[in-house]
Amino acid sequence: MAGTALRGRLTWQEATVAEVITETATARTIELSVPDWAGHKAGQHLDVRLTAEDGYSAERSYSIASAPGEPVAITVQRLEDGEVSPYLTDDLRPGDELELRGPIGGYFIWDGEPEPVLLLAGGSGVVPLRAMLRHRQRIVSSTPARLVYSARSLADVIYRSELDGYGTEVIYTLTKQQPPGWTGHVGRVNAALLGEVAWLPDQHPIAFVCGPTAFVEAVAEGLVMLGYPPGRVKTERFGGAGG
Ligand SMILES: Cc1cc2nc3c(=O)[nH]c(=O)nc-3n(C[C@H](O)[C@H](O)[C@H](O)COP(=O)(O)OP(=O)(O)OC[C@H]3O[C@@H](n4cnc5c(N)ncnc54)[C@H](O)[C@@H]3O)c2cc1C
Fold it and tell me: pLDDT digit string (tens) for 128-156?
């Protein structure tokens, strides 16, 4: 049994696109049908491999956007000068096939533990945190949870109506553009914002920080400065310069 699950994770398998959902002007959720999927936990990711007719292939990692027990889904943010993401967001159609392997990752996982959970997302870093919130909803968990989501503008917020419907506190901070009358936070997540939203270390919170590398490093450092033990600040870096 364990052998089968391990083989499933390490082996490339064919997946079929079941649905493509437009989340924002540049982000799409791709729901996949994967016949031999071994199941996943909230926070894990998978690898996608695309192979051109001339045999050239490219691999990228994507967080799993769906909760454990739901069909596998990923949400991809298109990078204008990117090699893989424009294909995934613009060209994929239901019925298309791609190769993937997973689930991958044993550290950046939320399994329903009772301690307060602070989720901090930069841009598409919200994807695995969304899987955690969906999981929390599905298991009817009473774990206190709070999401801080840094996006360029309100139009760039992925899953907005879903996030606002959980009854969980969601704190947006808009870095580049704010709508008229915006009374929420502006600019990058900084020490002042962290001080406002973070549970005190003596409440034994756990933090999950995900997004561009520079975002993750700044936020994780800020939480450690507030007294969070480094082991209670789990990080997932998507790469790139920041955002
Ligand atoms: C564990 C993990 C999980 C990930 N999950 C997701 C996810 O859920 N959704 C998602 O959209 N992406 C995710 N990524 C990022 C993804 O793997 C690709 O890096 C991204 O789609 C860009 O690939 P590309 O081929 O389009 O761009 P590339 O051709 O690889 O890069 C184009 C340019 O963009 C820069 N760049 C690369 N990545 C980023 C980034 N994240 N932000 C800003 N600039 C960048 C590069 O430095 C380069 O200049 C994840 C990465 C990791 C490691």
Answer: 999 999 999 999 989 999 999 999 999 99
CATH domain 117-237 topology: Rossmann fold (3.40.50)
Which residues fall within 8 angstroms of residue 99, CB to CB, at 6 or more apart? 12, 13, 14, 15, 48, 49, 50, 51
- The predicted pLDDT at position 240 comes to 83
- The model scores a pTM over 0.90: yes
Cα 238 to ligand 1 centroid, rounded to whole Å: 6
Q: Where in the chain is the domain with CATH 3.40.50.80?
A: 117-237
Residues of the chain with CATH 2.40.30.10: 13-104
| Site residues for ligand 1, CB cut-off 6 Å | 45, 60-63, 74-77, 79, 81-85, 124, 127, 212, 236, 238-241
